Amino acid sequence: MQTTMPEPVVVGAAILDDATDPTHMLVARRKAPKSLAGYWEFPGGKVEPDESLTDGLLREIREELGVDIQILDLIVAPEEAGWQLDNGMRMHVYTAVVTSGVPRPVIEHDRLEWAQLTAAAMQSLEWIPADLPIVDAILKQLGGSLAR
Ligand SMILES: Nc1nc2c([nH]c(=O)n2[C@H]2C[C@H](O)[C@@H](COP(=O)(O)OP(=O)(O)OP(=O)(O)O)O2)c(=O)[nH]1
């Protein structure tokens, strides 16, 4: 009998410049695979089978950006399983702040940018298409602090 492996779950970080009064979010441009190269995304990756979502995110951010983060809030998705990605996987996105180190594109990315948390600035980036509703939800969820 053939057994199918469950799809890995993906976690991403919406890293903010400030926990209480954010104005910018760290965005990352992918280098690979070819189909995603050049698109902007939330740094993160696949959770290992023996890891919690948040432990997976802490590990991925250390590996990819060389920094430690404090995880703040879940960006609430329409379904509890998380945001639907184009490859059939699900992603959970958390806001976070850097607690130690300066983010660098160690692996996976060729550019990092602190983008202004405005609809105009976010729309000017070419996001992985599946991320667009998440970006929108972040702007809405942080709405209170964006009125400037
Ligand atoms: N990290 C990340 N992945 C995303 C986003 N949006 C999106 O569709 N994806 C997709 C791209 C990939 O197919 C998958 C995440 O895989 P990944 O390549 O980042 O995972 P990983 O770091 O664990 O890498 P690997 O072990 O597979 O090499 O989810 C996003 O905003 N961030």
From TrEMBL:
Gene3D superfamilies hit by this protein: Nucleoside Triphosphate Pyrophosphohydrolase
Species for this entry: Yaniella flava
EC annotation from Swiss-Prot or TrEMBL: 3.6.1.55
Protein name as it appears in the record: 8-oxo-dGTP diphosphatase
Domain of life: Bacteria
Catalysis performed (reactions): 8-oxo-dGTP + H2O = 8-oxo-dGMP + diphosphate + H(+)
Keywords tagged on the record: DNA damage, DNA repair, DNA replication, Hydrolase, Magnesium, Metal-binding, Mutator protein
Phylogenetic placement of the source organism: Bacteria, Bacillati, Actinomycetota, Actinomycetes, Micrococcales
Cofactor requirement: Mg(2+)
Family according to the record: Belongs to the Nudix hydrolase family.
InterPro entries found in the cross-reference section: MutT-like (IPR047127), Nudix_hydrolase (IPR020476), NUDIX_hydrolase-like_dom_sf (IPR015797), NUDIX_hydrolase_CS (IPR020084), NUDIX_hydrolase_dom (IPR000086)
Start and end residues of each Nudix hydrolase domain: 6-142
